[in-house]
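Task: fold both queries, return tokens.
Query 1:
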Amino acid sequence: MSNRNHWMNEVTNVRQLRDELRLKAHLLRSDLRAELDHLETQWERLERDLAPVREAMGTTARELGATTRDLLHTLRVGYTRIRDAVKQAV
């Protein structure tokens, strides 16, 4: 799998996790809701930053930049934490 496909798959996985949590948002405690709101702002930034990458041909992981990779990691960790808290609450 190419680096570009790897990162696009990673984005897709985080997007699916995000969508799942948005559907369950009404169950969240207020502190988790605040964290989800913060992650949503970061998600919008990631989507905006990746738009040109999706259009570019032959994009490599290096071209994504450390900031984008760090943001993607932060989003995955945050969404996973909220998902796990929701599972425990249900």
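Query 1 returned. Query 2:
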Amino acid sequence: MRPFSFSGPRQFRPIFMATMSMLSVTLAWLSWQLLVQGAQIESQRRAERRDAAADLGVAILENDGSGTRELLPSFPISRTKYCAMDRG
């Protein structure tokens, strides 16, 4: 007596369909996980670019801020306003 054998296409079809269904579900799940991971990475990259732009803006303001006092007298404002800003 044989332990297990397929007796024809009639028994092969359900096993084939079950295997293909399982593979299809697995592929769909992996695809969904890949889409979710891609969205998370894009969000992280957007945040990193925003932080880098903010750091660059702060660096520019800090470098340009050092020369602001020298530029203020060249603007057309009265001397009393400039002196009041200097004290406060």
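Both queries returned. Flag for query 2: The chain has one domain: 13-87.
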